[in-house]
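Lecture 7, part B: from sequences to assemblies.

Below are the input chains for today's worked example.
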Amino acid sequence: MERFIDLALSAVLLAGLYATMAYGLGIIYGVLRVVNLAHGGVIMMGAYMGWVLHRKLGVDPYLSIPIVVAASYLLGVAMYRVLVRHLPRGAAGGPASLLLLFGFWLVLRNGAYLLFTGDDQSITTAWSTSSVVVLGSQLSVSRLAVLAIGSVIPVGLHLFLHRTHLGRAIRAVAQNPDSCTLVGVDVERIYGITFGIGTALAGVAGLLSATLFAFNPGSGSSELLKSFVVVVLGGMGSVPGTGLAALILAVVEVFAILVLPSYLTSAVGFVMLVLVLVIRPGGLFGHRVLG
Amino acid sequence: MSDPLLQVEAIDVAYGDIQVLYGLSFEVHAGEIVTLLGSNGAGKTTTLRAITGLRPPQAGQVRFRGESLAAVPAAGRAGLGIALVPEGRELWPQLTVKENLELGAYGPQARPHAKQNLEKVFTMFPRLEERQQQLAGSLSGGEQQMCAIGRALMSEPVLLMLDEPSLGLAPILVDQVMRTISDLHATGMTILLVEQNLHRALEVSQRGIVIETGRLRLHGSSAELAASPEIRAAYLGL
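Predicted structure of the full complex, as structure tokens:
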């Protein structure tokens, strides 16, 4: 029973991180119909940004969140303006944007090898090793912090998309861009902002993950794939659906430890992805475009 | 007569290799209600898209209040007072009715008056007020058309263009849409209408412009066009 509570709690804690990663991929796909294959690269960059700020400038990783958000947002806007804007979209543009963004990921990765070498790094602070007791389980403070931030982000994102003019315009662009142009929405600007929001979420996810796990310039692939699983499970673009899907993936992965050898647990998510695509291609909660 | 509100000057529009409009020219004066007529594929929708900037002309230009729109991006034209109710409504199906209407007033000129204009739209279409929290995609065809017209009105247009507003509607709803268009015209709004239902279109409008395979075929008062043997044979089936 104690072990069950332990596992359930660590699944919940992991879900916040998965959700944050997946929102970044999901919002870009939902609005631009572009799969951001550089997502893993931006996650890795977010980790290094936090690491540099902490290591060289002594900034606490949680205090560096606004800096990482701002820097990743600007990177995303630049990626859109310089690269993505010029590509064909939708089904026809698939291969071109996949290749280009994959290429951009390789550039980020090799840039990181050049700057930081291939050594594993992690962000460890004074409180990294401290823990509190919840329901009789030892929980590390950093995991709780990641959960707290990972829960605030979706609520904030949901409120932004539903309560602000800009957020409504983003949802409207996802559903019918021409109608947006007709009412005076600058659709290109919305695309740039959305790409920026998506990469900002990826950057934060990278920073949060760096406070829990070791990383190196090659990191990001499994994060990208997990984001995929969550976005597909959640039905592209639904904020609550994505949150729930993140929880499902985390629970399944964590509990798989009980029955599977550890090297197989990360395959569990992909089995789920395949099953969902075959059985319910619209996602577990039905296909919704930023509804 | 004063300067025309809208001048379409010799525009050519092509989709890739397929040219749709060939040197099309016509004018609409302030306060007029004009119908654009023509068979399927004649280029009526393309003409409206050229005026809105969604499909800029390759040659020729569109002037609004005497100023060329060539340098005005499509998203800037709502702010000048140009609104289109597109064919097939083109609402945002997973946004609520109220959100659809509010986004109609997205531009900086219209946004400060969004509240009053929303009241006006609700007065005009009480059904929309009842259903304001419903998703637009769940509305009936007639309600969606009201929502699309309401959304265009939220931008406080000077020139309101409607593309096939009666398409797919039951006859009683067609009556209502046509009455709405007449009422809007009576408030002083300039209207450019594209309509399949020629009887009804010529009833509400003052003038008609007939285009055929992307070229101006003839134009005249609605009475003249309704009486023209050519029109009667080609479009009215008489």
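Note for the exam: Residues 2-279 of chain A form a domain with the ABC transporter involved in vitamin B12 uptake, BtuC fold (CATH 1.10.3470). Keep this in mind when comparing with the next example.
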